[in-house]
Amino acid sequence: MNIFEAQAVGDDWQAVRAELERAFVMSRVAAQREESFVYVVHHDDLLGRRGAGNAMVATGLLSAARTAALEGARRNWTANVVAYDEDSDPDLVAGWAKRLAEYSSGVTGELIRIGTSHLGKALP
To answer: Residues 16, 64: contact at Cβ < 8 Å?
Structure first.
């Protein structure tokens, strides 16, 4: 199953680059196999609340999923993102990621938010 869970990187550029490269390798292998994939990110990272480095990774992965979705749509595989809150149930997050990786036909390039911290916010 092709699920990439972004790790916290702080504000170290080398760590940001390494995390994005790690995601790219997984994505490339999945795409070459014509398999769907999912990125899992912390919701606060999409809003820049946990530092610039983490925001670069999360928003980079969101952009990558939306871009990859264009190619996947031609070949019948999908790319999506699951964003979770600090207090999200890890089993719920894993379940959504698994569903999207295995059964996401027709759902691609999407951001699924788990939790409530995004309510009332201006969002990407």
So the answer is: no
Task: Give the confidence band of 106 by pLDDT, cuts at 50, 70, 90.
Answer: confident
Alpha-carbon span 84 to 55, nearest angstrom: 14
Domain containing 35: what range? 3-114
* Total residue length of the chain: 124
Residue 121 maps to a domain = no
Confidence at 96, pLDDT banded by 50, 70, 90: very high
Whole-model pTM: value is 0.92
CATH code of residue 52: 3.40.50.720
The answer as to whether 68 is a domain residue is yes
Q: Pairing mode, if any, of strands 79-84 and 37-42?
A: parallel
122 falls within a domain: no
pLDDT of residue 103: 83
